[in-house]
Amino acid sequence: SSAQKRMYVLNQLDRRTISYNMPSVLLMEGELDISRLRDSLNQLVNRHESLRTSFMEANGEPVQRIIEKAEVDLHVFEAKEDEADQKIKEFIRPFDLNDAPLIRAALLRIEAKKHLLLLDMHHIIADGVSRGIFVKELALLYKGEQLPEPTLHYKDFAVWQNEAEQKERMKEHEAYWMSVLSGELPELDLPLDYARPPVQSFKGDTIRFRTGSETAKAVEKLLAETGTTLHMVLHAVFHVFLSKISGQRDIVIGSVTAGRTNADVQDMPGMFVNTLALRMEAKEQQTFAELLELAKQTNLSALEHQEYP
C-alpha cells in the first residue's frame, strides 16, 4: 500500500531506527497461564496476514511477502518493580523488515500475580487502531473464545488501492493538494535553542497537563455554538500559538488521520494512517471565531481528500 511504501522508504534511510516501533505495555494482575498466553499470541498472529508479513524489493519496488505460518517467542523474565523501565528500554530494538513476523513479545514477572506484557510492532504492519484490535482479540483468545475467520486481509486493501479506478480517483485528490500546497511553502521559523541537525533525530519530549473544569466547559460550549470538533479548536489554538512565537501567518501543521474510510477495514490490523498537511493563513485583524471557521473548513476539505498518499 502507499502507507507501507512510505514506511519502507523511511526505514531504508536508517535501518537501525526505532522511531517507527510501536511498543505497548499491558499490566496483567491475577493468576496467569503463560502457556495459554503464548498460544493465544500465536493464534492471533497467524489469524491476520498483516501480522506475518515481511518486505523485500522486486524490480526496485517494495513488495509484501506473507509467510504461511509465524511464531512469536514469548520470552519470560523476572524483574523487580524498579527494574521494569530499564527492561522495557532494552526490549525496544530495531526490526529487520525482511524478517517476519515484525512483532515481538516478552513477559516481565514482577510478582507471582503481577506481570507486564511487552509488545512491539513495526509501524509498517500496524497503526494505533491495530493496537486496540490486537489487545481486544488477544483477550478473547486467551478466554478461549472462537473468533470468526477474517473475510478480507490487508493485501486485499493494497490491491484495491492500486486498481485503475482508484488511481483515477487519486487525480482529483492530487489536484486538491497541488492547489493547497502551491507557491512557496512556508518553513516555520521557531525561536530555537540550537540549530536543527542535518538529519532529523526525532529527539523530543511530551508535556502532559490538565485543563481546569471551567476551561473544559467553555470549550464544550464553543464546540456546540460553532459546530466544530475539539480537533478543529485545538488546530486553531495551535496555529495562533505558532504564529505568536514565529511571527508568521501562513503555517502548515501535520495532522494524522486513521485512513479507515472503508467499513470493510475497521477490524483489520494494518497500516492505514495518513498525514494531512493542513495549510492555513491567518489574516491581520482576524477574530478567533473567523480563524476557527477557517480551521473547520480546512479540516473538512482535507478529510475529503485524505486518501491521497
Automatic annotation (TrEMBL):
Transmembrane segments: none annotated. GO terms for biological process: amino acid activation for nonribosomal peptide biosynthetic process; lipid biosynthetic process; secondary metabolite biosynthetic process. It is an enzyme of class 3 (hydrolase). Keywords: Coiled coil, Hydrolase. Its EC number is 3.1.2.-. GO terms for cellular component: cytosol. Residues 34-87 form a coiled coil. This is Surfactin.
